[in-house]
Amino acid sequence: MEFEINTKGKGLILVLSTITLILMMIITTLLWWFISPRLHEISNILASLSLTLLRFFYLVLISGSILIYLTSLLERNFLIAKFAVRAFIKILFPLTVFLGSLIGIRKDRIEESFVHLNNAFIKAVKKKFKHSEILILLPHCLQNSDCGIRITYNIKNCERCNKCDISELVKISDEYDIKIAIATGGTLARKIVIENKPKMIVAVACERDLVDGLREVFPIPVYGLLNERPEGPCFNTRVSVEKMKMVLKYLLG
Ligand code: SF4
Questions:
Q1: Sign of the alpha-carbon dihedral angle for 142, 154, 169, 225
Q2: Is the pLDDT of residue 84 over 80?
Q3: Contact present, 99 and 15 (Cβ < 8 Å)
Q4: I need a surface site. Which of 81, 160, 205, 232 has the fewest CB within 10 A?
Q5: pLDDT, the chain, mean
Q6: What was the pLDDT predicted at 121?
Q7: Cα torsion at 163, 196, 240, 15 (round to 10°)?
Q8: Which of 138, 152, 160, 174 to probe ligand 1 with, by most ligand atoms within 8 A of CB?
Q9: Residue 156 burial by CB count (10 A; 0-12/13-18/19+): exposed, middle or buried?
């Protein structure tokens, strides 16, 4: 079966981050323009050195951005530099969210777009993994709220009654021989990642938790599957088991 990673929806983050980059360059140029007379007074060498540094900064910014945009749009690995992705995740993303808040774009829309962009990076790299290198990480809200079984410490305690998707997900993990865990929050998720040392994580969560998680565990790649919330947030959430299977098949090669 052809695996189509859903990478639609990354347009919003790309447009907003481009505007953010342009604003960053304008602000930096204005700052330099204001202080340059002072620098000339101190030393002409200092002034020309600062201009060279500014040009170098623009060069890094523009070439890194072009690499990221080409990689995500064409889903091909254009020598994707880890530092460019890191800069995007650590610096550009928070600035983009800030810009979005100023112009009235909801944070969750930007986060969702970012998850699609992140998934496009994973598709572009085309890296395959062994069974033992992958970890499926699930949120606790997938468990049916009426279920009294304690699955947090061992998800395999699930009695597979099929009242929620945990049942099928545990079955998939057995079938594909892949580690699976459930986390009640960021602290437990971190502990699970440290203990299991995965090289690839397939995480199910809402956009906010996915973005927090993938930024935190970087450079470990995280393929994000957004949960469905038919009964509202954090309650009896669902996930497409078929999508999970397709992602795992793709990552295993
Ligand atoms: S499938 Fe597992 S976790 Fe879900 S309700 Fe049944 S026993 Fe509980």
A1: positive
A2: no
A3: no
A4: 232
A5: 89
A6: 83
A7: 140
A8: 160
A9: exposed
Using a 6 Å CB cutoff, which residues line ligand 1? 143-144, 147, 149, 151, 158-164, 166-167
All CATH 3.40.50 domain ranges of the chain, comma separated, are: 127-252
* H/E run at residue 200: strand 200-205
- How far away, in angstroms, is 210 Cα from ligand 1 center? 23
Q: With contact defined as beta carbons under 8 Å apart, do 114 and 122 qualify?
A: no
Instruction: Residue 86: name the closest of 187, 203, 216 by CA.
Output: 216
Structure tokens belonging to residue 226: 């957004």
Rounded to an integer, the average pLDDT of 84-106 is: 87
Q: Is the model's pLDDT at 6 over the cut of 80? A: no
d(CA 77, CA 67) in angstroms, rounded, equals 9
Structure tokens at 154: 């061992």
Q: Are 116 and 9 in contact (CB under 8 A)?
A: yes
pTM for the full predicted model: 0.86
Structure tokens at 145: 């709220």
Nearest CA to ligand 1 atom 6: 161
Q: Which two tokens stand for residue 245?
A: 């299977």
Q: How far is CA 53 from CA 32, 34, 103, 167, in A?
A: 11, 16, 31, 56
Closest CA to 241 of 160, 157, 185, 150: 160
Q: Which two tokens stand for residue 181?
A: 């865990």
User: Is residue 139 over pLDDT 80?
Assistant: yes
**Residues 18-59: pLDDT tens digits?**
999 999 999 999 999 999 998 889 999 988 999 999 999 888
Nearest ligand 1 atom to the CA of 162 is 1
Measured CA to CA, the distance from residue 31 to residue 101 in angstroms comes to 24
